[in-house]
tRNA(Met) cytidine acetate ligase (Lentibacillus juripiscarius), 808 residues
Amino acid sequence: MKACGLIVEYNPFHNGHVYHIRQSKKESGADCLIAVMSGSFLQRGEPAIIDKFHRTKAALAEGVDIVLELPYLYAVQSSNLFAEGAVRTLHESGVSSICFGSESGDADHFTEGYSVYRKNETVYRKLLQNYLDEGMAFPEASRRAYEAIGLTTEKMDLAQPNNILGFSYVRTIMDHHLPITPMAIKRKKSHYHDQTMTGSIASATSIRRKLLLGEGLSEEITETLPEETARQLHHYKRDSSIWHSWEDYFNLVHYRVMTMSTRELATIHGVDEGLEYRIKKTAHGAASFHQWIQRIKTKRYTWTRLQRMFAHILTNTTKADMQRLEHTKTVPYVRLLGMTKTGQAYLNGQKKEMSVPLISKLSQDVDPMLAVEEKASNTYYSVLPADKREQFHRQELQPPIMVE
Amino acid sequence: MKACGLIVEYNPFHNGHVYHIRQSKKESGADCLIAVMSGSFLQRGEPAIIDKFHRTKAALAEGVDIVLELPYLYAVQSSNLFAEGAVRTLHESGVSSICFGSESGDADHFTEGYSVYRKNETVYRKLLQNYLDEGMAFPEASRRAYEAIGLTTEKMDLAQPNNILGFSYVRTIMDHHLPITPMAIKRKKSHYHDQTMTGSIASATSIRRKLLLGEGLSEEITETLPEETARQLHHYKRDSSIWHSWEDYFNLVHYRVMTMSTRELATIHGVDEGLEYRIKKTAHGAASFHQWIQRIKTKRYTWTRLQRMFAHILTNTTKADMQRLEHTKTVPYVRLLGMTKTGQAYLNGQKKEMSVPLISKLSQDVDPMLAVEEKASNTYYSVLPADKREQFHRQELQPPIMVE
């Protein structure tokens, strides 16, 4: 059986994802689609709107055969580490291709870009450092350095967040000489940062915004969602009482900061360059999470960077936790969240080829990194009413979700 | 001017306290009454029902001339350290006597008891250790050891929590040869653990219980409170939205535990003898703070001991914080919360006699121990709505409360 990998957040799963799944299947010719998905917290440092189990169910209903969880330590990171964790997880699970969305739909642009990058890497790194030293934020510094070495072309605009991710996947594959074909799927209609709905395909950003701003599952929104997603969104809120957003966690992270010394804050991953003082200074009087970040934000620190840092404070993810990644050549394990019959058949054959354990339950004492997952999961459910928390956490200890 | 010291929690201030104040003034013949009061958290490891500033106002209205704050590191402790901090604070402020409540109302019983204790201290300590080794909780072990050396007499029953405190005050005074006369004020009517109201004098326990169980300021309760206390209780709830109780903090402390490793938990003061494992194990599924403690409780660990431990987890008070006390001969500072004109006149004369700084604002960078106070205060206000927290915290930065 031939498998193709997708790297996703499904926050929430929507019609654009259905399109991506169909195209990926068609273009890769794979029998089995494997999605590696962020868990409780996402790359931009936000909590997922509904939990990973409910998102898994939505994805399995629409053509994904296997859903794997990208560990927190890779998921809530900038593109390099994010790509490293995702591509490595897919490699362990034996995919022969990875399909990612791009504007052009031509993977050659990315592989050609990689050659340019490799040839000019020293210049790139030097320029990047210069721009950073000037006080520029990383994404902007990196974009300019790419541009200077001729990498920001019309073919592959690295100012587009999706293209940066795509390029990171290709770079990871090629850096490690992995036997994986990168495939670029041409994106349809809506753009990453779009805040308006465009017909039945809308960006996850615009859907989340509308859901969280209190519209709920309006007709306009359900049009952009497969039926099973709408059902999972509905069930999740009915059973848990909320759709998660950062403001739900504001009290917790504020309390935590208010009871930590600056020295303790500096032990947290992402709290660098004296940010601990800035965090403490701005904490007094911040009336919302949004306002707090706005008070900390400078040219050097993007919203995303700060949101990730707050996710690490919230989950108590320390620099010591991060050191676990330093000496790992690959991901320490592959966590299976759910699968179809096809996925199960595929994994039965693949399992013995894997160089790391395939696990399904969080309780398994496989690797110290699972302690970080436990913290992230506990944090995620902390905002549920006390009598619901345990019920939702119990999902972490169940066998993987199975769908016909 | 002659000053007399009181050691109090005023949680809340009630008619029994008015009686104690009048008797103390009469029996000591002092011109100035100085109360050293627990701040945000109390000896039993509970949050105070209303904050220290509102309790200070209630006390100043009823005859106390100066209210000083007992630092958290002394306040949320068993009787020895509690007494050490309170007596030392009063000594620094120059009192010539300390009045405490007792059943008999005869201080000689306590000083005689001290002589018996000193003579038999070695035996006491040995017996205490034996009982502890048998798995007995400290209060019970200590009571039995006192009994064995002939200290639990009808005159001074050390099974009574108030008598234990009184005895600790006397012991601290006499151990350090402080020029302070201990005076026992005969208690009137209600008992420490009474849960029923008895006329217009009721125990703080019964008043709190009735207030928190939703009766609010009923006629029956206001009868037991001076007018100013009822006013402060009313104002506090109106302005902050709550009267504080442990259950308000359950979510915060639960979240904190769920994102700490057992290793991290063991760095917290009071988390000893492997309790970190027991705390983690019982956290899953605990639906309330009450239920959580009940699951942890054993013969060895009393409710109070566990509540104090949870207060330290909640406020992030570490064993390292506690080490600050080890090398201090006296309290590091005296914190003034409020005073009357009489109190002010007294302090003007006394200030230059003090061997430690007299401070009023929390922001003053006088001593590292103030960082612990900051954590305790921030924690206390964490359960207020976001827009109120800052407003209430600002009280910590104001000059002391002044009353005519």
Observations:
- DSSP finds 20 helices and eight strands in chain B.
